[in-house]
Each structure stands twice: as C-alpha cells, then as structure tokens.
Amino acid sequence: GTAVSAGDWKGIRDAIRTRRPIRYRGVTGDARFDENGDIEPPYYYRVWRIKNGASATEKIEKVTQ
C-alpha cells in the first residue's frame, strides 16, 4: 500500500479519497488493519500526561491480542 506516517494528514486523506491501500507507520511503528479497519495486534500504545506544561510519557503498553 501507499506508505503514510503519523501526522501526514494530506497523504492519508489522499490515499483514502482515491481508495488506495495504506501502509501506515504510527509513532510507535508500523500498523496493520483488518477488513473492518481495526488495528491488528501486536501493536503498542503510549499514554501521555501533561506535567508542568510539557508532555511526558507515562507508560508504553504492548497489545498482543
């Protein structure tokens, strides 16, 4: 599919609008989607908090199922 990255909103919109398959690279790595558009494991997610006016990573979790 068309390679797009987190924050590449124009590239993502263009691929969706033209119905091209997307190969999405999120901020924590590549992501695969099933036929319903749901992300397939394994993948990671990051929990952020704002502390003293700056973002800080609280934890990173790996989802396996």
What does this structure look like?
This protein has about 60 residues and is mainly β. It is about 15% helix and about 55% strand. It is built from one helix and six strands, in the order βαβββββ. The chain has one helix spanning about 10-15; strands spanning about 1-5, 20-25, 30-35, 40, 45-50, 55-65. It has a four-stranded mixed beta sheet with strand order 1-2-3-4, covered by helices on one side. β2 (about 20-25) and β3 form a beta hairpin. It is flat, with a radius of gyration of 14 Å. It starts with a strand and ends with a strand.
Number of helices: 1
Strands in their spatial order, largest beta sheet: 1-2-3-4
Q: What is the mean predicted local confidence, pLDDT? A: 86
Largest sheet: 4 strands, mixed
Strand content: over 45%
How much helical structure, as a percent, in the residues? 10-25%
Oligomer: single chain
N-C termini distance: 24 Å
- Summarize the helix and strand pattern as letters: EHEEEEE
Q: Mind sketching the topology for me?
A:
Elements: E1 2-5, H1 9-17, E2 22-26, E3 29-33, E4 39-40, E5 43-51, E6 54-63
Descriptive labels:
14% helix; single chain; two-stranded antiparallel sheet; 65 residues; flat; 4-stranded mixed sheet; 6 strands; 1 helix; mainly beta
Summarize the entry for a quick read.
The protein has 65 residues and is mostly beta strands.
